[in-house]
Write a structure and sequence with these properties.
single chain; about 190 residues; mainly alpha; 3-stranded antiparallel β-sheet; two-stranded antiparallel ribbon; 6 helices; about 10% strand; membrane; ATP-binding; cell membrane; transport; transmembrane helix
């Protein structure tokens, strides 16, 4: 019986330490070391919050840059990939359909020019960024839909491209939400 009480006390102590203490330690580390003090990086337009910069969102209008496809329909509560192998017939059919849809919206591109990221979902299904190549492939469509000069939209993409750290770590990327908000602000001026 003595061992039972010791086990229960240790279990309760570990629940408190790991269930509460660990969470508080992680929260403290994120507040010190994380971007925005550990808070979500929200994006605003005209004083209204339009989304979080670190979570991918669906954009389907031709006037906007499109995000990567999402296997979880951009649901932040259900992050994850499709878990289908690259040889899975359903996966291949889905990718082929997205390639055809992308080419239909971008008739000036050849099949070889379609960026792979624009037709395949990310591992999280919530990737907020695309590569500069993925954004540049969409410049002409967006510029024409908005009645803007292609060079102006291309410059906007270049100005919002986040470079890799010291040119060594990470990849260049463009946050789709920030890019689309910048487009809206550009149209307002």
């Amino acid at each position: 019986m003595k061992n039972l009480w010791i086990s229960l006390k240790i279990t309760l102590a570990m629940c408190i330490v790991l269930g509460v203490g660990y969470v508080l330690v992680l929260r403290g580390v994120s507040a010190v070391a994380g971007p925005n003090g550990g808070e979500a990086d929200v994006v605003t337009l005209d004083g209204q919050v339009v989304g979080a910069a670190n979570v991918g969102q669906r954009f389907t209008d031709v006037r906007y840059f499109w995000s990567r496809p999402s296997a979880v329909d951009y649901n932040g509560g259900g992050s994850g990939g499709s878990n289908k192998a690259t040889t899975n017939p359903e996966h291949l059919a889905g990718v082929e359909q997205r390639v055809q849809d992308f080419l239909a919206a971008h008739p000036y591109l050849s099949r070889a020019e379609v960026p792979a990221e624009m037709v395949t979902a990310s591992g999280s299904g919530l990737d907020p960024d695309i590569s500069p190549r993925g954004a540049q492939a969409q410049v002409r469509r967006v510029a024409e839909a908005r009645g803007l000069d292609i060079a102006t939209v291309r410059h906007l993409v270049d100005s919002l491209t986040q470079k890799s750290w010291l040119g060594l770590f990470g990849t260049e990327k463009v946050n789709v939400l920030r890019l689309n908000v910048a487009l809206e602000e550009l149209n307002e001026n």
